[in-house]
Design a protein that fits this description.
The chain is mainly alpha-helical. It has helices at 9-31, 35-75, 80-111, 133-138, 145-151, 154-171, 173-192.
Length: 193
């Protein structure tokens, strides 16, 4: 007997996205501007389910990043590799952030949202001054890691997780006991994802 092969999370996400596009297109062409569809499906069921999904993703980001980095960092047996891991983690965060910003700016330039719409406003926008390089480096280290997690400050969470994992790796027996807890917590969070 052959077992069914489980689809990966990425495959299921792509299938869900394609199914959503097909369903949305189908409803748009079949129902058109039907008030019932707009009220109960689009702004009702789909909106509620979508908001719950987005909120659930936001809920998982901080614990997933923190626990995964702590587990990964404390699992390294050679302390000399820890510096490279930290550099790679911060580097990957910077690269993915730069890609996201580039994509967003490019999309905004191509699509030009809001063009042709003139709204009167008496609000003035005064941009704040960019922080100096030394401020940016100092701000990588959280003065309160719990507050950084509550605010979703990912760079501070990454730095704290790496320092926490390094400390666990270097402390010996207590770190090994704590590593077991974080391994279990990581398994729970992965299941939740």
């Amino acid at each position: 007997m052959s077992e069914k092969k489980k689809l990966s999370l990425t495959s299921r996400i792509v299938i869900g996205m394609v199914a959503g596009i097909i369903l949305g297109t189908f409803i748009r062409y079949v129902a058109g501007d039907n008030a019932w569809v707009s009220l109960y499906l689009t702004n009702g069921l789909f909106d509620v389910v979508g908001q719950i999904f987005i909120t659930s993703l936001k809920m998982l980001v901080v614990p997933l990043v923190f626990v995964s980095l702590v587990v990964g960092t404390c699992s390294l047996s050679d302390p000399s590799k820890l510096g490279r891991l930290g550099g790679k983690a911060v580097g990957m965060y910077m690269i993915t952030t730069a890609i996201a910003i580039t994509f967003a700016i490019t999309a905004a330039i191509l699509i030009q949202p809001g063009s042709g719409i003139e709204r009167a406003s008496d609000a003035d926008f005064e941009p704040s001054e960019a922080p100096s390089v030394s401020e940016v480096i100092v701000n990588l280290f959280p003065d309160n890691p719990i507050n950084a997690m509550a605010e979703g400050n990912m760079l501070q969470i990454i730095v704290f997780a790496l320092l926490f994992g390094i400390s666990m790796a270097l402390i010996g027996k207590p770190g090994e006991r704590l590593k077991g807890f974080f391994d279990d917590l990581n398994a729970v969070i992965m299941k939740l994802v």
